[in-house]
Amino acid sequence: LFYKGDIAKWKKFANSLLLRVAMRISNVDPALSKQYVEKAVAKGVFTSNADNVVLQHELNPQGVKTNPITSTWAIKEINGGDCNIKYSKTFIDQLKNNNDPRLRILAKLEGSGDNTPAKQQGLDNGALEFPNGGNKKLLSDPNTSTVLRTDAPTIIMHNAEVQFLLAEAAQKGWNVNGTTKAFYENGVKSAMQMLTVFGNKVPSVTDAEYDTYIAAHPFDANKALEQIGTQKWISLLFNGYEAF
């Protein structure tokens, strides 16, 4: 199911998991964290989206080979956009206000099928009622043409996460064979490019769009951890534990 038996890629996956666990304790036991972060990097972690761990799903049979999260959501809950589960305003505004080209891929108004970024609207966290006179169809849903397809793949771990982990380690001055800026930019580009795994029904993010985005939101050493954390959070959509 993963890598078709390629042991070298499995080793990269194991080392990348070690990197994730080691960074998890970086503020609690920096010395131990540094030891295992550098060990993982020396042994070889993800370097491109070709290393991503992706579980492919199929359209049939329902409940067996379909995506267990998206298929139930898409079939039973989405209800043409007239549903109670919506993107949060926090997430939509983050992408919308920063002209993030990923928004057209990740979200749409299911009722009308409109994925125009300017029209996307999230629901306030903790909202007790729906705005717009209770018209749920004016709020953004996960895109059923891409991330909420019933056969949408599950991304177990991806290169973008690894690049952001390395950026954080580099920011701490650890030996990870690169700079914070380079790892950060690699992470953003990788996070945008990996969305091709969800198919071609929505145009993928181009290199020019990435260049425009990163020029408008350049790496700032004074806000490094905030930028890294924000971009990592965006890239971990549907991976709730890691995003948290």
Tag the structure with descriptive keywords.
about 240 residues; mainly alpha; two-stranded antiparallel sheet; about 45% helix; about 5% strand
Q: Can you tell me about this structure?
A:
With 244 residues, the chain is mostly helical. It has ten helices and four strands; from the N terminus they run H-H-E-H-H-H-E-E-E-H-H-H-H-H. It has a two-stranded antiparallel sheet. Helix 1 (7-24) runs antiparallel to helix 2 and helix 7 (180-193) runs parallel beside helix 9. It is globular. The mean pLDDT is 96.
Task: Give the radius of gyration.
Answer: 19 Å
Reading the helices and strands in chain order gives HHEHHHEEEHHHHH
Query: How far is it from the N-terminal to the C-terminal residue, by CA?
Result: 27 Å
Mean residue pLDDT: 96
- Count the helices. How many? 10
% residues in beta strands: under 5%
Q: In which range does the helix fraction lie?
A: 40-55%
Lateral arrangement of strands in the main beta sheet? 1-4
**Backbone structural class:** mainly alpha
Estimate the global geometry from the Cα principal axes: globular
The counted number of beta strands is: 4
Quaternary structure of the protein:
single chain
Task: Describe the main β-sheet briefly.
Answer: 2 strands, antiparallel
- Poorly predicted ranges (pLDDT <50, ≥5 residues)? none
